[in-house]
Please model this.
Amino acid sequence: MDEEYDVIVLGTGLTECVLSGLLSVEGKKVLHIDRQDYYGGESASLNLQQLYEKFKPGKEVDASLGRSRDYCVDLIPKFLMANGELTNILVHTNVTRYVEFKQIDGSFVFRYGKPSKVPATEYEAVTSSLIGLFEKRRLKNFLQWVANYKEDDVATHKGLKLDIDTTDAVYNKFGLEEGTKNFIGHAMALYDNDEYLQQPAREAVERVVLYCQSVARYGKSPYLYPLYGLGELPQGFSRLSAIYGGTFMLSTKVEQVLYDEAGVFQGVKLSLDGEEHVVKAPQVIADPTYFPEKVSSSEKVIRTISIVDQLPLKNGETSAQIILTGKETGRKNDIYIALIGSEHKVAPQGKNIAIVSSIIEGDKPPHIQLESAFKLLGIKAFDRTFMGLSDLFAPIEDGSKDNVYISKSYDATSHFESVTEDVKDIYFRVTGKPLKLTKLEEGEFNAQA
Amino acid sequence: MSATQQEPRFAQFKLVLLGESAVGKSSIVHRFVKDSFDDFRESTIGAAFLTQTIQLDENTTIKFEIWDTAGQERYKSLAPMYYRNANAAVVVYDITQEASLERAKSWIKELQRQANQDLVIALAGNKLDLESERKVAKEAAQAYATEEGLLFFEVSAKTGQGVKEIFQSIAEKLPLESQIKSKSQPKSVNLQRPSTNNQSSCCS
Model:
């Protein structure tokens, strides 16, 4: 194998694979390594066998669940916003050719003891059972203001300053009630706690716009999901990288990371078929597990995966997101439930995957913290539930000193916007320029079209 | 001829290539798609996949979407998505390299384990132009292919001998009717389609 590369990438999670693909397309010589024998790291989708091995080692797979290979269970539950940045990257890089997407049927928020559809259009707002008659008018006014807001047309601002006025102040300008604020902030802007209320309103407004535009794009819900699970995404971007010359090595252990006297990254030592190789590159991009001494963690996320026969949805939806806001459950952070099934080819006919996630609060056992979600799902016994606690790691330094660029752990949010933020941020630090997406020309050769 | 047979029929299939590095996978495809050969071919940069159509009979056209490994097989790092939903596979070995047939056999095992049940697999011994350096007996490979129920060919990407026949035989064996039928099922979302909604219509 070659000894020198432009960039070494460690770990095949989504963040690493997108960066690997983008850099290869630019002509960088990329070596991409994973210690595991499958793609995806934390963003992999596992079959039933792998799921048991990870969460219930030594336990026999429940035969009544069907064939192992019919399952593609995500470790990190997330959906794509139809108009979000990941969709944008997929379209520009043509990775859409390797991954098929279907809509998620519904976006719900738990209120008054049941899941209700999140209104995202003026029509839905005025017909929603979530809100009283007078409030409907106020919500309509708010959504109209958001839709008509133009940065360079002060008349559309209605006297509000997005970089100064807090989100709460904006809500109050429209006279919105607490309950309405709660679902705009949590079910549309997708904040998982209330800290945003006291921040300048720009980000919240942008998030509401993203939500509405995403709903408008295909209808039903703002979310898309790849057939066969999220694990297809890192694989798709790895193929992009390989097609543009990237070299991939799975099941490869990094024996040692090499630094110079100043602590700057030089390369890695790895063993290949029992032989030691030193591979050099001026920069390394890695997920947090490859540099445990260079990352820290402030929060933990609990994620539970359950295989269920029935979904708590009334109108025949086969997939959905349900948000249980902190207000409803007495917690600080929201609980997200992602529901997917055979329609998205992640489970056999008649079986569904329900993934519940939230930030851990206090010392109560995780299944108690998520009690309201299990109640909603009708889960009483946990023999078909797999629980995992994960630290949310972030790099301590930005890589400018040691040329080690470390990604963040996948957070508790229900979509990929924070992942693509991280991708763009690392891209900027690695290349020194902001990411500019240009549509790739097709390399396809068509003989007799 | 019945009336239904006279309607033009079109079906598209995904075909994947497998085999050890340097056995000539890409060369076989380039011979098939472009009818050309390059002694010093570098792996194809930037091609998602190649396509080629075959006229099966006067009413029936088959389009192959041919996926190359893009080198990901080299360190045993081929992503499973590669053979997901593949309809056909051409597993290539080099008749002058005995070990390449063993590798081909392990790919075939992997395909039988992971891929579609009705996957059509062809085993192809390449470099027939190097007959004098042959190390793999035709009979041995043929016997293995028959036992496993595979199509079998010996070919030369360099001269073109036998290459078209691989794809022709695969086309004849593919389940045409069910593919045409499955086309009419609800399709997935097309992300490449530009959004029909303009920004100002959002939220209103």
